[in-house]
Amino acid sequence: MGRNYFFKDSTDFKALFEKFYPELCRYAFYLTNDKSIAEDLVQELFISLWEKRDSLQIESVKSYLYTAVKNRSLNFLQSYYKKNIQFGITGKDDSVSNSTKEEVEYNELTLLLKEAVKTLPPKCYSVFFLKRFEYLSTKEIAGKLHLSEKTVENQMTIALKKIAVFLDRYWK
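^ that's the sequence the OP posted. Answer follows.
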């Protein structure tokens, strides 16, 4: 049993949830641009925290929570992006309605995401590409690009913000 720095009991957990849930939802919304998805991602994070409560050993609660939300949001966007590119190109997906409007929206979003990624500065692009498409860890990226792990994390944060701003500007 590891020492738990997050909460000692369900009362502490509830206080943690009430303190951070609204701001984490806003952050997830900033990254995903979808309120429902943002809320789901944050709720899933708190469920995971509760399930792992006996093994958590993180000292900086706020930093951990924001990083976890960022990673969950990125994973969601990556999955969504890949699905839309795959089905936008092949046009074959039985689970997606064949409505013309939805197809047009998927195609528009796919193009916008490609354009958003293209606008990233070179270092951001390299880090983002290696993390999200080559599935390298932060440590592997740092070694490959001769950067510190902190720089890799910062570049991912910058990339996500730039992509979110780009999408917010053009995807209505």
